[in-house]
Amino acid sequence: FPPRPDSSWDAAYERELQTFQDIGDTGEIWFGEESMVRIIRWLEKHKVPLDSSVLDIGTGNGVLLVELAKSGYMNLTGIDYSPSAIQLSEKVREKEGMSNIKLKVEDFLAPSAELSGFDICIDKGTFDAISLDPSDAAGKRKLYVGSLCRVLKPEGFFLITSCNWTKEELLNEFREGFEILEELPTPKFCFGGRIGNSVTALVFQRK
């Protein structure tokens, strides 16, 4: 991922926006189909009510929200600090006819007051992107955890998918205010005889 808040991130979404306008293609899904399926399966398995309020942090092209809407979830919000990403997700939403998805340009590290009271927050890659910021990544990770505590209800669920962090590292990052509920199965890879995970997916609950 390009470091944030690099203009190349915006440029990537602008290219996808152009492509979408030209050929109706939603562009890159950063984490692929299986990470969306994994999230939706978990929500269904735990019988999370369809009217639960869901926040997609760093929604990108909004495809996860569209899939959640198709699965029957009705109270969906996507935020992204890139206006081009929000424009792209609005186009995707219109094409799919999903009027129940709310989309906003927001910087999660400084969220607006109305961003609060969510039952579920989902992050696939946004925490990763913040972690790669060359200017004060550790400080930004702290801000992220603080924002998450503000926007997620007590007892609310946080589902994070990461390419950069191991389970142990994520447990350490989110130890203030969150406890782990479960680790979701992700594809394994083998390197030099050792088996590891290229992707970590965890479910936390806010204390």
CATH architecture: 3-Layer(aba) Sandwich
Low-confidence stretches: 1-5, 24-30
Q: What is the N-to-C order of secondary-structure elements (H for helix, E for strand)? A: HHEHEHEEHHEHEEEE
**Mind telling me the CATH superfamily name?**
Vaccinia Virus protein VP39
Major beta sheet, specifics? 7 strands, mixed
So what's the CATH class? Alpha Beta
CATH-assigned fold name? Rossmann fold
Strand order across the largest sheet: 3-2-1-4-5-9-6
Q: Which structural class is indicated by helix and strand composition?
A: alpha/beta
Shape: globular
Q: Distance between the terminal alpha carbons, to the nearest Å?
A: 31 Å
| Beta-strand residue fraction | 25-35%
Radius of gyration: 16 Å
How many alpha or pi helices? 7
Helix and strand topology:
Layout (H helix, E strand, L loop, with lengths): L6 H17 L8 H14 L7 E5 L5 H8 L4 E6 L2 H14 L4 E5 L12 E7 L1 H6 L5 H15 E11 L4 H7 L4 E7 L3 E4 L2 E4 L2 E7 L1
Parallel strand pairs: 1-2, 1-4, 2-3, 4-5
Antiparallel strand pairs: 5-9, 6-9, 7-8
Helix pairs in contact: 1-4
Q: Main traits of this protein?
A:
Rossmann fold, 9 strands, 39% helix, 27% strand, disordered N terminus
Summarize the structure.
With 207 residues, the protein is an alpha/beta fold.
Give an account of the 3D structure:
With 207 residues, this protein is an alpha/beta fold. It has one domain: Rossmann fold, CATH 3.40.50. It is built from seven helices and nine strands, in the order ααβαβαββααβαββββ. It has helices spanning 7-23, 32-45, 63-70, 83-96, 126-131, 137-151, 167-173, and strands at residues 53-57, 75-80, 101-105, 118-124, 152-162, 178-184, 188-191, 194-197, 200-206. Strands 3-2-1-4-5-9-6 form a seven-stranded mixed beta sheet, with helices on both faces. α1 (7-23) runs parallel beside α4. The longest helix has 17 residues, at 7-23. The protein is globular, with a radius of gyration of 16 Å. 37% of the residues are buried. Keywords: Cytoplasm, Methyltransferase, Nucleus, S-adenosyl-L-methionine, Transferase. InterPro entries: Efm4/METTL10 (IPR026635), Methyltranfer_dom (IPR025714), SAM-dependent_MTases_sf (IPR029063). One of its GO terms (molecular function) is protein-lysine N-methyltransferase activity.
